[in-house]
Write a structure and sequence with these properties.
The protein is of the alpha/beta class. The protein has one domain: TIM Barrel. It has a nine-stranded mixed sheet with strand order 8-7-6-5-4-3-2-1-9. The site of iron/sulfur cluster has 10 residues, from loops.
Length: 237
């Protein structure tokens, strides 16, 4: 939809451009846990360029919701990459839209290889997701994949299929498995650490770089965010 905030990490010389809105409606979306109200103002292109130009940065990360829904993504990424000469990354994407060439790296969430699953649980087909993942890789964009492990929904068999799909493109692509954190109204439980560890083992049969993250509760996740230097930043617009 649109950019409502820019934050800055002096330590990592990184600006984060925050988008509001997503074209999927995943039942387990953890953004729902944050209870973020719709922003009351959005930044225009001129403001975004002015703020980015004023910062000492080496990286611009696009974060929040689904970035491909932001109509000016190409303009902002072109400006960051070509005018400012910085590294550009989409920190999280559902992959429904193809990123512009001026994006250096993108992390794409792959929820399932089943189209029926996607339509039922996200409201959209996975065909563009899987196609765009391969296209972005062929464009030379550094892609990595992620999945949320949800017991009895996105379980070990699903993780294995996704890992195999990614490995068929390139077994060096990084894959991150996140343990599901229960959201209100959704029927699934949180995984145990053993289930996550097994998912990692299965994915490692196909891929060389598999990481996992697992938090017993949303509060534990927030605690990690508050303590990890990677997440420390100040709001600059
Ligand atoms: S794609 Fe990501 S941000 Fe969008 S609804 Fe699904 S989990 Fe939430």
């Amino acid at each position: 939809m649109a950019i409502y905030k820019i934050s800055y990490s002096k330590e990592f010389k990184r600006a984060n451009i925050h988008n509001y809105g997503c074209n999927f409606n995943c039942t387990w979306c953890s953004y729902k846990l944050g209870n973020q109200p719709k922003p009351d103002r959005f930044l225009d292109l001129g403001e975004i360029k002015e703020v980015l130009s004023s910062l000492d940065i080496e990286r611009v990360h696009f974060v929040g919701g689904e970035l491909s829904t932001y109509p000016l993504l190409r303009e902002v990424a072109d400006f960051a990459k070509n005018e400012l000469g910085v590294y550009t990354k989409i920190g999280h994407s559902n992959g429904y839209g193809l990123p512009p060439k001026s994006i250096d790296a993108i992390s794409v969430s792959i929820k399932s290889l089943s189209e029926d699953f996607y339509i039922k649980y996200t409201g959209k087909s996975n065909k563009p997701v899987l196609e765009n993942f391969q296209k972005a890789y062929k464009m030379g964009i550094k892609v990595d994949a992620s999945s949320v492990y949800i017991p009895k929904l996105v379980d070990h068999d699903e993780i294995e299929e996704i890992a195999e799909f990614v490995a068929n493109i390139d077994p060096e692509i990084s894959y991150h498995i996140t343990g599901y954190i229960p959201v209100p109204g959704a029927p699934w439980r949180a995984p145990t650490w053993d289930e996550i560890a097994k998912a990692q083992e299965i994915a490692e049969d196909y891929l060389h770089h598999v990481e996992v993250s697992w938090f017993p509760s949303f509060d534990d996740y927030l605690k990690m965010i508050s303590e990890n230097p990677q997440y420390q930043k100040v709001i600059v617009a």
